[in-house]
Design goal:
CATH topology of the largest domain: Arc Repressor Mutant, subunit A
Number of domains: 2
Radius of gyration: 30 Å
Shape: globular
Strand order of the largest sheet: 4-3-5
Distance between the termini: 70 Å
Number of strands: 8
Helix content: 25-40%
CATH superfamily of the largest domain: Winged helix-like DNA-binding domain superfamily/Winged helix DNA-binding domain
Strand content: 15-25%
Number of helices: 7
CATH architecture of the largest domain: Orthogonal Bundle
Length: about 200
Amino acid sequence: MTAAPQTPRLAFADLAGAVEALRTRGLRLTTPRRLVLEALFAADGPVSAEHVASGSGLDVTSVYRNLEALEQHGLARHVHLGHGPGLYALVGRGEREFLSCERCGAVRTLTPEQIDPVREQIKELFAFEAHFTHFAIVGLCPACARHRPPQSRRLRSKAWVKPAIDDNPAHAHEHSHGDHVHAHAHSHQRDGVEQHAHGHIA
């Protein structure tokens, strides 16, 4: 897995600014690199290398190579939304952090300032400085959360589920005949045959 980059981001607002930022880093603007930049500018959010390749006509290996170069020089970042592969986005207008719905896949992009109250609470409680640029916060979006069964309903439904195989079926009861007490144990085997055991307690 690619590590989160430590290179400070470069500021730019458009393709011309990104090209100028490349040159300040000593990188040439090759045709594949321009196509990758154009694809990232055209995207609504973070996209995969495969998405960039399919829209630009480049092979995936070339796309990955150029994405990694852009990331190493502070023009792009990759983020993991849930269990999926790394997705790439430009950071010329500022770093972004993400919320990702684990049910429908919806992604919400936030500025660091929008999520600072959460970050401050984590720091206050655990003395931990949290960042969500590399890994998104995963949960349920408002629409999916509204359709989630209530907790009580889930618990009630589980209580009515009868297991197919009784893994702890032994039961015992006692009764007396004069000076003797009889203990009867019943157990249900996995083949469905019930067995009885009788004991005597003086």
